[in-house]
Amino acid sequence: MRRNTFVQTLAATALLSSLTGFAQAQAPVDLQFYYPVAVGGPIAKTIDGFAEGFMKENPGIKVTPIYAGTYQETIVKALTAHKSGTPPVTSVLLSTDMFTLIDEDAIVPFDNFAKTPEDKAWMASFYKAFMANSQTGGKTWGIPFQRSTVVMYWNKELFKEAGLDPNKAPTTWAELKDAATKLTKKDASGKTTQFGVQIPSSGFPYWLFQTLTTPNDAILANDAGTQVKFDDPKVIEALQFWVDLGKAGIHPPGVVEWGTTPKDFFEKKSAIIYTTTGNLTNIKANAKFDFGVGMIPGNKRKGSPTGGGNFYIFKKSTPAQQEAAFKFAKWVTQPERAAQWSMETGYVAVSQAAYDTPTLKKYGQDFPAALVARDQLPVSVAEFSTHENQRVTKALNDGLQAALTGTKTPTQAMQDAQKEADRILRSYK
């Protein structure tokens, strides 16, 4: 009898063990996904839809989007979680965070997972301008997703009122200054009620500054992210141009808010604004007037920085989670979904294949403004990025804001920012 009980116990243990193994095999791989919401519009709804669509096709993976605030807040949360040993599996973070994430040993390259010819073809399908901030040292650390360039928006009605051709945007600095002068309005007391042009200088001052340094043929950092050129005369000249727009009274004085710039455009407080193409859908939905979208005006050349976020895979997640994150990034960036994302948000679809889809082709024909950011890519440069990126960027941002508020001259502001950046980057040279 006792032997019988022993056999039954053994059988029960074996059954329990096999059931546990089966349950573990069935338990979905948990994919925590940090996502920054930094631009207006129903973006979170689209991301939720992508997560649901992916889970339907991949029942063994559970995707949990965590909306982590601005890009700055998201990287702080992601790195804090990484240091405490519980990082997200994947996150969309700025392409410019690449060096920081590598220095923190927080991420793994995508090359580790691209095993098949199909995987490799997918990794080679992205626009080259977007890969400039996604690769270093011969490895691909980020996959372009929420990518952009800065574009210029103008109010066609206000152009018409000012005697300007509503269908012709300024293409040079001289034309921009001339149009902005004609578009500036004052009331009887002399208070400005409508500025000709508005370039935001909070949130991402360094990025908007690149819309002036790039056309002036200046590059702010080397490719290795170890050296900056803030005190280059061409950089100082670009900052002087920005400061002079304010001094001429045709651009708002002091620091201009990033977040309220589209609203100032809707309310006709500014006739021309510079902002991300990621605001295109927001502007299309809320502008109660006909507007144009154009490339950034040139000076010595044309050009804009690229911008926006990449997918990264975190090192401390399990191999199964990392594989799932690779699969998710690949799924989301397929041409049809990249096309959908571009139409719903205004961000640039990240591959030519997306623009070749019938849906995005038709959308581009019906709404040519959606193609401006893409068409600007051949003259676009990498968004400013270095090692110790947040500290170096802060030195530049502080210098820009000091010049724009008049507490320092552009020359002094950029020389001080250069000294601070050199000090921070000393160990990387």
Automatic annotation (TrEMBL):
Main localization (coarse): periplasm
UniProtKB keywords: Signal
Name of the protein this chain belongs to: ABC transporter substrate-binding protein
Similarity comment text for this entry: Belongs to the bacterial solute-binding protein 1 family.
UniProt keyword Plastid present: no
Domain of life: Bacteria
Keyword DNA repair found: no
Xref: Gene3D superfamilies: Periplasmic binding protein-like II (3.40.190.10)
GO CC annotations on file: periplasmic space
Compartments where found: Periplasm
Signal peptide region: 1-25
Organism: Variovorax guangxiensis
